[in-house]
Design brief:
This protein is an alpha/beta fold. The protein has 2 domains: 196 residues, P-loop containing nucleotide triphosphate hydrolases (Rossmann fold, 3-Layer(aba) Sandwich), CATH 3.40.50.300; 64 residues. Helix 4 crosses helix 5. It is elongated. This is NB-ARC domain-containing protein. It comes from Zopfia rhizophila CBS 207.26.
Length: 288
């Protein structure tokens, strides 16, 4: 199970009132922050995308529900933007519950809900017959439990979200399976106290998942300035090497993941491998 960063100050979550935390307790404490990745202190650029996300979220504040999808090529930085945004929300909205769900397959989706149930913690979750998906869905749908943000990461295949086939909805153990006719997408709440952000390489899947509740934000490769800034933070270069650095980020098509991998290679092999040396190796491999 991925490590979780849980932020909870002076909370006794055993205090319940009719299945929900009292409003006074919610207002007096910081909410759970369940994001399995630390903040990247070297994060650069993407301020235009983060500003667009923030604007769309504010515009939809008065509507019933908001869903927003970050769509782009693999390695373009969709998840990194989502991680950075989640940590910023934790800073400015400490009472907002932030949860991260891996949306790559049904097993990981259900495990994400299991983790939410365990960390809140939800009464009845330990019952072998407990319907974890329904328990978490009902809790998130209850406005008395406050604001929340769910990040559904790597939802590239929407097929399993919309089929009504049986799936593991209990505790995640093979011996404790609850069958559902409802598709998994129906367990994504549509209440005004919550927002769902999706990352996906598949634009069609993203459109299907946001439905009528939100919109698509296209994540493109970095501009040259941000790409150079990213390379500089990972593998510092001098002004005399800027031309080589510029040629390198352009050769890597300004894809953040490719730049990060190149920087790691250069840094761990310095001074034997220089910026120009790596560029030669890259061009050689591309030619072959």
């Amino acid at each position: 199970m991925l490590r979780k960063f849980l932020v909870r100050k002076n909370v006794d979550c055993r205090v319940w009132q009719h299945g929900t935390l009292t409003n006074a307790l919610l207002l007096a404490t910081d909410a759970l922050f369940m994001v399995p990745f630390p903040r990247d202190n070297l994060f650069v650029g993407r301020e235009d995308i983060i500003a667009e996300i923030s604007m769309k979220r504010k515009q939809a504040a008065s509507r019933n529900h908001i869903r927003l999808a970050l769509v782009g090529l693999g390695g373009v930085g969709k998840s990194q933007v989502a991680i950075e945004y989640a940590h910023r929300i934790q800073q400015v909205e400490p009472h907002t519950l932030v949860v991260w769900i891996h949306g790559s397959n049904p097993t990981r989706f259900v495990q994400g809900y299991r983790d939410i149930a365990d960390n809140i913690p939800l009464p009845g979750r330990e019952d072998p017959k407990a319907d974890i998906l329904q328990l978490v869905y009902a809790w998130l749908s209850d406005r008395r439990n406050g604001q929340w943000l769910m990040i559904l990461d790597n939802a590239d295949d929407d097929g399993f979200f919309f089929t009504g086939d049986e799936h593991t909805a209990g505790t995640g153990q093979a011996s404790e399976i609850t069958s559902h006719k409802r598709p998994l997408e129906s367990f994504l709440p549509q209440t005004p106290n919550g927002a769902i952000f999706i990352t996906s390489r598949n634009k069609t899947a993203a459109i299907n998942l946001v439905g009528t509740h939100g919109s698509i934000v296209q994540v493109e490769p970095m501009n040259e300035e941000d790409a150079l800034a990213l390379l500089q933070t990972r593998a510092p270069f001098s002004e005399s090497s800027k031309a080589d650095a510029t040629a390198l980020v352009q050769a890597l098509e300004r894809i953040p993941l490719a730049i990060t991998h190149a920087a790691a290679y250069i840094k761990t092999r310095a001074p034997m491998t220089t910026m120009s040396g790596y560029l030669d190796l890259f061009r050689e491999s591309e030619a072959n």
